[in-house]
Design brief:
heterodimer, A: Alpha-Beta Plaits, 4-stranded antiparallel sheet, B: 4-stranded antiparallel sheet, binds adenosine-5'-triphosphate, binds magnesium ion
Chain lengths: 302, 217
């Protein structure tokens, strides 16, 4: 067992030394892998940030209910009662038409225009805070209220959040596709790197076979090499993402100052970082394994 | 220890390198393999190490028919054979020391113990001073001795040598033969292919002579 570990440690050291022996080509290979990985991983980070912002923005979805202009006192009283008794509704807020007009006057600076109106064009309205804020529940409630006598229009204010959610879903799908494609690219890059290594070390492989090396022994440094390429490529991708975020955040800070709010993109979590490294190492190993399976068989000593 | 039974070897081109070869070498014996160039000496040694497979007949090494050995079992056969190749097969990307280290690395021994054995093997062939040299910087004879060091570092029970003294002057050739003699004395089985008439005469060892792939009686 100790021996086995020592053998693996030696193979790993040996591989590292080889990697360092050709620093430029190793660095370029690793950079290619890093760039390929940083695209989907960076997209994941962006999506996570957008989703986080969206969730913070719509933590309390509302439904606006506008009554008909011709709804009388009776209708209003009935609707008021029914809303208060409704199981799915947590809290309601009545906005009388006069108040609504006042608000518009103050907030839009259209006081002159509105002052010229002979009649208030706005209906009475309610703002409803539903208990269940799921998209489906909101829609069901909207459809139900829409049918009530005396209600003109019901508007779910989180509609834009749902659109964003759909957009995010699309973004995630696109990221997945990009990730799969670039994952293949990573496998292809390591496949080729290891193929070249096998070709340049043909003599060593032949001699090793002649003096009793098992296939596992011969495979080992190549598999380690593939894994190291993947791992270092993953680290490069991590660095690319973190540096890019630092740059972007610098710019965002200026932008946020203009809007008097804070806007910061969060980097990868520790778990995600580890997942990125593990994933890239596995893909590198896979590429090496395929390459070794393909090319080592052809080298038979004479 | 090594038994050939009606072995025929035909190369892909159709050339018959060995024809119906039958012989037996007992454990601890030292046997020379003589014959003209192209007689099939290297081919015969390659069959023992399963580097080539016979077209018919059986090659039994230590009770195992290597002609029908699975690929996975080959490494374990070869680890117990010391192989000295006619073309050396040294690696020029590492030092003499690391070349001799390779068989021990393959077997996965403790590094310090292995290093001691490597130096002992290098010492035996007179190359201890050159352990850091790249084989490319060694003379033909030194390369040959390095190849011998690599073959004996594992303390194999069977040593197969293909022209081990081909590039050496009489003095070194004699020393190499003395090394083989010392292995013979501790019970190692040796099969040595050679042109070296003086060595053949010097040792009162059995000689198998090949002629156009056939064993002369
Ligand atoms: N891989 C091969 N493919 C085809 N023919 C081969 C191959 N190896 C050897 N031969 C032929 O088989 C014959 C025996 O070759 P071998 O190498 O065994 O001779 P040898 O006795 O070792 O000669 P030498 O003393 O020159 O080393 C030769 O005629 C050679 O041309
Ligand atoms: Mg030969």
């Amino acid at each position: 067992m100790k021996n086995w570990l020592a053998q693996h440690a030696r193979a790993l050291l040996f591989t590292l030394r080889r990697l360092l022996a050709a620093p430029v080509s190793s660095a370029l290979n690793i950079l290619v892998i890093g760039i390929a990985l940083s695209l989907p991983a960076g997209m994941v980070v962006l999506l996570q940030n957008v989703q986080g912002m969206a969730e913070r923005a719509v933590d309390a979805p509302q439904i606006s209910v506008f009554l008909s202009m011709d709804a009388g006192r009776d209708d209003t009283a009935r609707i008021d009662r029914q809303l208060k008794q409704h199981q799915a509704i947590g809290k309601i807020e009545f906005v009388p038409r006069e108040q609504a007009l006042e608000q518009i006057k103050q907030s839009t600076g259209l006081a002159d225009v509105i002052g010229g109106l002979t009649q208030n064009p706005l209906p009475d309205a309610y703002v409803i805070y539903p208990k269940n804020t799921g998209a489906q529940a909101l829609e069901a409630l909207r459809d139900e209220l829409q049918k009530w006598q005396g209600i003109e229009h019901v508007q779910v204010d989180s509609a834009w959040a749902r659109k964003l959610e759909a957009l995010l879903r699309f973004g995630r799908l696109a990221t997945l596709i990009l990730g799969v494609l670039l994952g293949f690219a990573l496998v292809a890059v390591t496949f080729n790197t290891i193929r070249l290594q096998i070709l340049t070390r043909r003599d060593e492989i032949e001699v090793s076979k002649l003096i009793g090396a098992t296939d596992a022994f011969i495979r080992r440094p190549f598999l380690y090499s593939g894994m190291l390429h993947g791992l270092l490529g993953g680290a490069a991708a991590w660095l690319i993402i973190v540096t890019s975020l630092l740059l972007v955040n610098g710019n965002l800070a200026e932008l946020a100052q203009l809007y008097a709010s804070s806007l910061v993109l969060r980097p990868l979590s520790a778990g995600d970082s580890l997942a990125l490294l593990g994933f890239s190492a596995c893909l590198g190993w896979l590429g090496a394994w395929l390459s070794v399976a393909q090319h080592l068989r052809r080298i038979e000593p004479r | 220890m090594i038994r050939f039974n009606q072995v025929c070897k035909r190369y892909p081109g159709g050339y018959e390198a060995l024809k119906n070869v039958t012989f037996e070498i007992a454990g601890g014996e030292m046997v020379f393999l003589a014959g003209h160039s192209g007689a099939g000496k290297s081919t015969l040694l390659h069959l023992v190490a399963a580097i080539e497979r016979p077209n018919s007949g059986s090659v039994v090494v230590r009770g195992q028919n290597v002609a029908s050995l699975r690929g996975g079992a080959l490494p374990y056969l070869r680890r117990n054979l010391g192989l000295i190749f006619q073309d050396h097969k040294l690696l020029f990307d590492r030092s003499a020391f690391d070349n001799v280290m390779l068989p021990l690395q393959i077997c996965g021994g403790d590094y310090r113990e292995s290093a001691k054995r490597v130096r002992a093997a290098l010492d035996k062939v007179g190359l201890l001073q050159r352990e850091k040299a790249n084989p490319i910087a060694l003379s033909g004879g030194e390369q040959q001795r390095l190849c011998i060091a690599r073959a004996i570092v594992n303390r194999p029970s069977i040593l197969l040598a293909d022209e081990p003294t081909g590039n050496l002057d009489a003095g070194y050739a004699g020393e190499i033969m003395d090394i083989f003699q010392s292995f013979h004395q501790v019970g190692v089985t040796l099969l040595i292919a050679t042109h070296d008439e003086s060595a053949l005469r010097h040792f009162a060892a059995r000689t198998l002579t090949l002629k156009h792939g056939e064993l002369q009686q």
